[in-house]
Design goal:
The protein is an alpha/beta fold. The chain is 29% helix and 28% strand. A five-stranded mixed sheet has the order 5-4-3-6-7, sandwiched between helices. A hairpin with a 4-residue loop joins β3 and β4. The relative contact order is 0.18.
Length: 181
């Protein structure tokens, strides 16, 4: 009797045993080995989260901005930019990350995600290379870890490459917030 393939640990399978034995692949997945369904499958959806936060004064009036793009087309699928009241720049940066991860999860919880931010602190902490020391950042970092996709990469980008998220921050600080959508 044929044996079902061994499935990866850590979550629900993308294929059920019947599909795997039949050699068929459901819509939205492609074989990991490039063959016609002979191997394990991977999700084809890739999203990019761009997030930023800022405060005018530190602490001072603060806001965050985040957007989610389809990695292949570059199309913006969701965005948000909201004021936070008085907060530090780092709290605003983490708030942007949390909003971006929430939107990505709402779009496709199984997608791989690349997070792009100009905050070296947030990127290094989320990648596990730096510790989260400040007490006001710990709850936000914990929330971001809860939302962390199974497949995620953390990319620091120069400020010039984070203009779309920065524009959402500044619009919110100038009284023109953008609610999720």
């Amino acid at each position: 009797m044929p044996r079902a393939p061994r499935l990866p640990q850590g979550g629900p399978s993308l294929l059920d045993a019947g599909d795997a034995l039949a050699g068929t692949v459901p819509d939205g997945v492609e074989p990991a080995d490039g063959a016609s369904g002979a191997g394990l499958a991977t999700v084809t959806r890739h999203l990019v989260v761009e997030a930023d936060g800022g405060s005018r004064g530190n602490p001072g009036p603060a806001a965050y901005g985040a957007l989610v793009r389809d990695a292949d087309s570059g199309e913006v699928l969701a965005s948000e930019g909201l004021p936070l009241g008085v907060a530090t720049n780092n709290v605003a940066e983490y708030s942007g990350l949390v909003a971006g991860l929430e939107m990505a999860r709402a779009i496709d919880p199984s997608a791989s995600v690349e997070v792009r931010m100009d905050s070296r602190l947030v990127i290094e902490q989320m990648a596990g290379r730096w510790r989260v020391k400040h007490p006001s950042l710990r709850p936000l970092a914990a929330r971001a870890q809860e939302l962390r996709p199974h497949r995620v990469s953390w990319t620091w980008v120069p400020r010039e490459q984070n203009k779309a998220a920065d524009a959402l921050v500044n619009a919110a600080l100038d009284g023109r917030p953008r609610t999720r959508g």
